[in-house]
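Handover notes (outgoing to incoming on-call)

Open items:
1. Sulfotransferase: sequence verified, structure written out, both below. Nothing else pending on this one.
2. Nothing else urgent.
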Amino acid sequence: MRHCINCCVQLFPEDTHQQQVACQGGPHHSHQACPTCKGENKILFRVDSKQMNLLAVLEVRTEGNENWGGFLRFRKGKRCSLVFGLIIMTLVMASYILSGAHQELLIPSPFHYGGFPSNPSVMDGENPSDVKEHHYQPSVNNISYVKDYPSIKLIIDSIAARIEFTTRQLPDLQDLKRQELHMFSVIPSKFLPTSKSPCWYEEFSGRNTTDPYLTNSYVLYSKRFRSTFDALRKVFWGHLSHVQGKHFRLRCLPHFYIIGQPKCGTTDLYDRLRLHPEVKFSAIKEPHWWTRKRFGIVRLRDGLRDRYPVEDYLDLFDLAAHQIHQGLQAASAEQPSKMNKIIIGEASASTMWDNNAWTFFYDNSTDGEPPFLTQDFIHAFQPEAKLIVMLRDPVERLYSDYLYFASSNKSADDFHEKVTEALQLFENCMLDYSLRACVYNNTLNNAMPVRLQVGLYAVYLLDWLTVFRKEQFLILRLEDHASNVKDTMHKVFQFLNLGPLSEKQEALMTKSPASNTRRPEDRSLGPMWPITQKILHEFYGPFNTRLAQVLDDEAFAWKTT
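Sulfotransferase structure tokens:
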């Protein structure tokens, strides 16, 4: 015997969430016919804005299987209800498979929180003008998010009530030396007086056949840097200073650092600034040595490797050191006291904020706060270093960051869910710990599915200002840079005391296209949902207000962007 049950289901995306259901088949035909199907046996639903018809037929057989006997003895109504439930479960699973982006999904996800992706490693900048407005039909999820807003607002209010910007306790120099004995044995306390960059000569004990980069970790762990070091090997011996049978190489640290933030335009600034003839950067745009490599971190999710010694970091500035050495040698005969104008820069966008490694190496924490931060060590060697920071509206920064690093299923819905989860995790930390402890909490930062903490600019800047003077910073906004590149670059030139450029050089620097812009496939996803934007503006609001107060500039409150 064969018994067929056909069901017609229509789900609507409107707020009413109406459902019309009619079951046909079996001995009873008293049900009202489905007006949408008009007598046809269909299941209607939408995937990516397109209406689709699927025939749902369940065949029940009794021949050769006594176990189905009990099922067939059920009343017809119970059988219809059970089958209808199975069909709905099947449609929920199918909707996830058929809709990668969850856009126009008629059956919304039953889950409100995404999984934990691996923590990204390196970030670059982006031009906000690349984010074009797209007009999409609101999804069912977007409507449900609006309804969920009051509960999310409670989380934001809970976080805001616990925000307290406290002054951190600074470590003394002896504590720093105990943590990094080798670093302090390599970098001297005084540098050459005739070099704008902090440089010094150290003896090289190898021969002219010695490979100075044989054990460099940047070379060993990354094939793409090997060609750079191959070129350095060829000219290495010719750039040594030979005195009384001994050989000396010039070592240098950066004169200035572009310390952050990721997805705020640091790559574009770097690409333009390196066109200035007086500026030389490290062989690698973002060495991430101060924040990651010196701890043996390549990708945190891969665990710890051997720590990169400071010598490996200094090797990255050899090309610039060769040019400075040539200038010093030429000037020594004519004008021994002449200052060499070349300055070295470094542009790791993690320098300002990433202190995730501290929990693995520093155990003398106070209430969960790190006893040492990156800036403590930089200041110990370079108390006069110049620091450039590029920032943007943290709301837009977070969305850009998400689009850049999310590997699959990117959508406004997915972003909203991850933001909601991150806020909940951050609030849970704030219930038990201080703001600083949560911002630098490695476990929390790796658990949050979006890097919410990177946009808390005020927390990081205030901690940097405990060791460096405010005059040593140039704080820029990506929004201003995107609208007037020439003005931004002139501010940078003035801050670094660089010489003027010719009209041709300046035109090349200021009129070239923006670097590292948003990928076309990410642009097609459109903007975040307005409700997500509202939630993030409210979360970042107190931090932006504090930042604007510290910098005495209301533009950094991002009340209108």
